[in-house]
Amino acid sequence: MTAEKFSGIDPKALPNTFLTLQPGLHFLEARWPVAELMTLYLTETAPDRFELPSNDVRIEVRGARGQFYLNRLDGAEFTFRKSIAGGHSIGDAAELAMDTSADFDPGQALAALIAAKFITGINRDRE
Known about the structure:
By secondary structure, the chain is an alpha+beta fold. Helix content is 37%, strand content 23%. It contains 5 helices and 5 strands, in the order αββαββαααβ. It has a 3-stranded antiparallel β-sheet, covered by helices on one side. It has a two-stranded antiparallel ribbon with strand order 1-5.
């Protein structure tokens, strides 16, 4: 989906709009640095010693055709994207993300999803 597709939506209707994201997009929340661990495993560059400090991480996993990418997200961005993927409207996902961080910018988060080309469908009604 391109930004032009969104320009035809009435701004007042946008919060009640639902998005479909790429099927190869998944979200993982962990208490351990799993992204670093997976990178070491996949690159076969294991150090002699690796400490696993407890640390909340939120990772967006994107992949298809045998390749995948890990993207670490902050709490609000993770909440927004995971909520959209979970079937929440744009407005509901933005509210959930703002509960995580008062600095969250829903417009910027939506623009980032569009720029990343993660959106495959726009729906006015929940399916």
